Amino acid sequence: MHELTLEELTALLSVFDRAGDTVDAVEADLLNRLKTAHAERSELESMDFDDCLGGACKL
């Protein structure tokens, strides 16, 4: 399966934001999963992998 890029996740969150409140449980679950994926992807892309030398990496 194709993993979404940080830019794609940001765009999806923007669409949810413009759509307004989510009443449906499936939509709310999807929004929460998108927020989690966005936070994880953002953290991963902000990591400097030089920090992983010597076992200090937090992955």
Tell me what the structure shows:
- The chain is mainly α.
- The longest helix has 22 residues, at 25-46.
- The protein is built from two helices and no strands.
- The chain is elongated and about 50 Å long.
- Helix 1 runs antiparallel to helix 2.
Keywords:
single chain; mainly alpha; 61% helix; 59 residues
Total E-strand runs = 0
Structural class: mainly alpha
Q: What would you call the shape? A: elongated
Strand content of the residues, in percent? under 5%
- Bin the helical content: 55-70%
Query: On the 0-100 scale, what is the average pLDDT?
Result: 85
Outline the biggest β-sheet. Answer: none
Described by its quaternary structure, the protein is: single chain
Stretches where pLDDT is under 50 for at least 5 consecutive residues are none
How many angstroms separate the termini?
Answer: 22 Å
Structural Rg: 15 Å
* N-to-C order of helices and strands: HH
Number of DSSP helices?
2
